[in-house]
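agent: user wants the structure for Medium chain dehydrogenase/reductase family protein from Streptomyces siamensis. delegating to structure tool.
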Amino acid sequence: MSEITYRKIVVERFGGPEVLRTVEATLPEPPPGHARLKVLAAGVGFTDLMARSGDYLLQRRPPFGPGYELVGEIVDFTADGPRPAWLTSGTRVAVSLTKMGAYAEYVTLPLWQLVPLPDGLDPVTAAAIPLDHLTAVSVLETHGRVRAGDTVLIQGASGGVGQALSRLGALLGLRMYGTASAPGAEELLARHGVTHIDYRRQDFGEVLREREPEGVQAVFDHIGGPGLRKGYRALAPGGVLVSYAFAGRPGHMVADTVRGAVRVKAMNLRPGRRTALSMVPHEIKAGHDWYRTALERLLGMARSGRTVPRIGAVEPLMKAADVHAALERREIAGKVVLTTEA
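agent: tool returned. relaying tokens verbatim.
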């Protein structure tokens, strides 16, 4: 084994897309229980943009590399015990990171984080799955505990996690409402059987009171603010509000997120309904088996075509700053995936 020289994208200081810089680094041989991967594709999430600007709850200090999800090819590894048959050099794996750093040509990661790709699954498709779809599994199964026939409200249903919730919710047999205002949202949501609520023209609370007078079994929220109470009031007895993110004011995102989380916890003290917080990076750290089982299942579903992420753009890794700028201008609809150059 020898050192690998490679390039990666780092946030040198908090700010706009221009603070993303390409730097050269070296990767030493992997320590016991780790593997070196050649990154093939990395998914881009809005958490990356928030972290870059310094407005992310799980914030890292600069310099750091953005990106929570990637697909890579195993270069080499150092096992520290029995290893599965698939763990060989050249095997392609998907990973959901817990501390970011996917915007790179090579990475070193613990072996437990590596989940092998099913044969025939495209790396770009696979790289668009981990973060959004693991969040959806956490929201639906771990915290929502929904069952076939339940009625749910998905806030921001045209976003990455919202679409993952819609896809998986359709497979579970849920009746779904979704708030969205982007052009083409109604048609997009209809593909998964989601009834569209245009939150700029309609009050979702009034719509649900009219159409679901007994209330809904679950509300999935990534916005926070006044919508939390309104969503809570829309619940049927025994229903649950699951929050997996919070919108906030620029420059105050961390404080607003903490405030929102405290509000959700406080609401859980009321009898008759419950609330829950989904924080997937923490859940991955705490539940290696849950993470691996869930991601293996999601990758298999993508391979069989049962849940396929909507890819909005595929760009070279070195154009990460341009991608961030385009996402901030809302010029791209769907998941963006960065690929390493040949």
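agent: one observation worth passing along. The chain has two domains: 4-128+309-339, 131-281.
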